[in-house]
């Protein structure tokens, strides 16, 4: 299969914050699915110029291109593409489907209800879900100090947390989880508990499956209202996580880490190569820091997952 087709798309909002989607017309591949408007980038054309041209041709509007959202590498049976999505900072004109395509202005919270091509699904997650995923360290000091560090992370803006504490005695961990869930709820943060489905059910929160647990399930272990994440290291892991209905995955390590020195780093190219074959939102993990979010997004990641870089 040849190199990827470069495609650009825009996130266009109206004055009320609704986002424009276009329906692929009959006779095209993936006909009937909804997507973010845009099209192919021509050789030698910048992404910004390509997006401006495509949206003028397709919708009759003139735009000012804004910041990147995410660039998703995706493999289809007959082609590979890289979908480079940008915010549209401003636009002028009257939106109309000049190619006969149906259009809809969708409130952001309804985007996931629209059937979309696989490359567009991670775009919805990038718009609506957190770009950083805190994994808690083991509580090696006092309970109070651990909870203070969690509180500091939440105050700093963390909104998705995996509660993980290897080797912590169960009775102590149950008390810490209860206090941690209370803290996360006060801050409006999502909570997932590492590996322990029974505890997640008891606390009415999500679960983060270890890679070794994926083979145990044919369907997701919790209802749709409770998030299910998964740790993945291979394409088989990712495909399994997607098949059982996980909401997102964590993939790595990207770089060498002190906690897993034996892990063979994927690097960003390795991450992007695995990203191509699933539609799941995927966090990059392993040596990640806040400064890596932009490069993670440029390789199709939802963002970063980390312990030390996000803790406290």
Automatic annotation (TrEMBL):
Single GO MF descriptor: metal ion binding
EC number: 3.6.1.55
Domain Nudix hydrolase, chain residue ranges per copy: 3-129
Protein's GO biological process: DNA repair; DNA replication; thiamine biosynthetic process
SUPFAM superfamilies associated with the record: Nudix, Thiamin phosphate synthase
Catalytic reaction annotation: 8-oxo-dGTP + H2O = 8-oxo-dGMP + diphosphate + H(+); 8-oxo-GTP + H2O = 8-oxo-GMP + diphosphate + H(+)
Obligatory cofactor(s): Mg(2+)
Root EC class: hydrolase
Keywords in alphabetical order: DNA damage, DNA repair, DNA replication, Hydrolase, Magnesium, Metal-binding, Mutator protein
Family: Belongs to the Nudix hydrolase family.
Name used for this protein in its record: 8-oxo-dGTP diphosphatase
């Amino acid at each position: 299969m040849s190199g990827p087709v470069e495609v650009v798309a825009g996130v266009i909002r109206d004055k009320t914050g609704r986002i424009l989607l276009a329906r692929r017309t009959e006779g095209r591949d993936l006909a009937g699915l909804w997507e973010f408007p845009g099209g192919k980038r021509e050789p030698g054309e910048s992404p910004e110029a390509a997006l401006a041209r495509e949206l003028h041709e397709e919708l009759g509007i003139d735009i000012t291109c804004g910041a990147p959202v995410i660039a998703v590498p995706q493999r289809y049976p007959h082609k590979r593409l890289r979908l480079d999505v940008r915010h549209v900072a401003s636009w002028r004109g009257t939106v109309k489907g000049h190619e006969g395509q149906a259009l809809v202005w969708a409130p952001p919270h309804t985007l996931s209800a629209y059937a979309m091509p696989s490359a567009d699904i991670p775009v919805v997650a990038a718009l609506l879900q957190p770009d950083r995923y805190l994994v808690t360290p083991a509580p090696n000091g006092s309970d109070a100090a651990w909870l203070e560090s969690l509180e500091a992370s939440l105050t700093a803006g963390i909104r998705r947390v995996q509660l993980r504490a290897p080797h912590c005695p169960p009775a102590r961990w149950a008390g810490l989880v209860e206090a941690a869930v209370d803290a996360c709820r006060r801050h409006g943060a999502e909570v997932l508990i590492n590996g322990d489905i029974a505890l997640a059910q008891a606390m009415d929160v999500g679960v983060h499956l270890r890679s070794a647990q994926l083979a145990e399930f044919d369907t997701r272990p919790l209802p749709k209202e409770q998030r299910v994440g998964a740790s993945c290291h291979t394409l088989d892991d990712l495909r399994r996580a997607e098949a059982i209905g996980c909401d997102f995955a964590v993939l790595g390590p990207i770089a060498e880490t002190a906690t897993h020195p034996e892990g063979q780093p994927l690097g960003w190219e390795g991450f992007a190569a695995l990203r191509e074959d699933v539609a799941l939102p995927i966090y990059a993990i392993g040596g990640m820091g806040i400064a890596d979010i932009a490069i993670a997004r440029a390789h199709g990641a939802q963002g970063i997952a980390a312990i030390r870089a996000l803790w406290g």
